[in-house]
Write a structure and sequence with these properties.
InterPro entries: TPR-like_helical_dom_sf (IPR011990), TTC23/TTC23L (IPR042621). This is Tetratricopeptide repeat protein 23-like. With 420 residues, this protein is mainly alpha-helical. The chain has a domain of 138 residues: Alpha Horseshoe (Serine Threonine Protein Phosphatase 5, Tetratricopeptide repeat), CATH 1.25.40. Helices cover 76% and strands 0% of the residues. Helix 3 runs antiparallel to helix 4, helix 6 runs parallel beside helix 8 and helix 9 runs antiparallel to helix 10. It is elongated. The N and C termini lie far apart (62 Å).
């Protein structure tokens, strides 16, 4: 190795070590932003912690800049790692600093005042979202309203740092909608989501990606209120946006089509059977083409579709779909996992409903073998399948069908009950 290269590396290392804390802080902030954009969550949070340490060294323990660093760290823990306890801890530390500032440390200019208000927005939004994750809708609502109030004050200022604001009106509105949902205030939640939709359309147009989950949230609420036509209408809008943004054979279109199929299926009306089947099939094809038959999302779409087909009286079609899914798998080892067990369980129940008891017994026996290997013999899923097999074993041959169907009607109606 050239000694000049080694000398250059050593000089660079010493330059980094001997750099003043302020220079190190700037570099750490840049790395944190870069790692966050690249979804390198652990590295991003590590750099945010470094920013907090350096800020404390430079400004001390009672300065609004330390509160800013702690708020950014809290927001990082929440949005990057989904850790509400850590987020709450650091957000509360930041809030305490801002609320107990001494006379010599408050913001010196309107620009700094704007920054402090933006920190409060980040703090209260982070606390509110952490509350939401911890199912504390009351505290969530309170903190989000405080965030909204701080944001209103901030918007009255002429603040140059507005472009760097972590939280916008739409974020708070959506969070308030989710908090309302937790409180089971369906009408209020729907209003918030509709308000967020209007905000997004005015800001980004009618093909913004974030419109998809918002339309779907409103569709769910309408479905819960049994306003099925409205639910379908919003689900159709979500599907339309996904087709405008993504390729026909993509996971995003598969997800939107699956949601739309469920919206049609939820009505239980015969006039919607054809549409439900169309979108369930579209979803399965999109997932299969984009991800392959072995992918969990594809298997989930298959299970939803096959169960619905059973409910719609198309059991043979459902059985054929499930059977073919094993043949088209790329990896033979995927015959021995929890997704395979669930498909075998549905196939066994289809056979049971079709009065093919021997086929049902064989499929459920294979299913329970996989479940024992994966979950153990005492798991509730294993026990559920084993109980069904034991019941079939106890019956004399000529009585198997009649008594099995009478004693456990849920087994034949497996399409309408939750998965294993």
């Amino acid at each position: 190795m050239d000694t000049r290269d080694t000398d250059g590396e050593n000089q660079e290392m010493w330059a980094q070590l001997m750099a003043p804390p302020a220079a190190k802080l700037i570099e750490a902030q840049k790395r944190a932003e870069r790692f966050a954009e690249g979804k390198e969550v652990h590295k991003a949070c590590k750099e945010l912690m470094q920013c907090t340490v350096l800020t404390r060294i430079i400004y001390g323990n009672q300065h609004w800049r330390l509160a800013e660093a702690l708020a950014n760290l809290a927001y990082g823990y929440l949005t990057l790692q989904g850790l509400p306890c850590q987020a709450t801890h650091h957000a509360n530390s930041a809030k305490y600093i801002l609320l107990s500032l001494r006379g010599d440390t408050p913001p010196a200019s309107s620009e700094e005042k704007g920054t402090v208000l933006s920190i409060f927005v980040t703090i209260y939004y982070t606390l509110g979202m952490a509350n939401l994750m911890q199912k504390d809708a009351k505290e969530c609502y309170c903190n989000l309203q405080k965030a909204d109030k701080c944001l209103e004050e901030l918007q009255e200022l002429v603040w140059k740092g507005a472009a760097n604001l972590k939280v916008c009106n739409k974020d708070i509105i959506v969070a308030l909608g989710r908090a309302s949902l937790q409180k089971n205030e369906l009408d209020l939640a729907s209003k918030y989501f509709e308000k967020a939709v209007d905000y997004l359309i005015s800001a980004e147009g009618d093909a913004a990606p974030e419109l998809i989950p918002l339309y779907q949230e409103i569709a769910k609420i309408k479905q819960m209120k049994k306003i099925y036509e409205k639910s379908i209408s919003y689900a159709l809008q979500a599907h339309s946006v996904s087709l405008a943004l993504y390729q026909k054979f993509s996971p995003e279109v598969g997800s939107a089509a699956l949601f739309l199929g469920k919206a049609y299926a939820a009505t239980g009306e015969e006039k919607h059977i054809e549409a439900a089947e169309k979108y369930f099939n579209e979803s399965l094809v999109a997932y299969k083409e984009a991800l392959g038959m072995d992918h969990p999302q594809t298997i989930n779409a298959l299970k939803v579709f096959s169960k619905w087909l059973g409910l719609a009286g198309k059991r043979k079609q459902a059985y054929k779909l499930l059977k073919e899914s094993f043949k088209t798998q790329q990896n033979p080892c995927n015959d021995f996992n929890k997704q395979a067990a669930e498909r075998l369980y549905i196939m066994g129940c289809i056979c049971l409903a079709e009065e093919k008891i021997r086929g049902a017994y064989q499929l459920l026996s294979k299913c329970v073998q996989i479940q024992i290997a994966i979950y153990g013999s005492h798991h509730k899923k294993t026990k559920k399948t084993q109980e069904l097999l034991d019941m079939m074993d106890r019956l004399p041959t000529e009585q198997k069908l009649t008594k099995c169907l009478k004693q456990d009607k849920k087994a034949t109606l497996i399409f309408s009950i939750p998965d294993l």
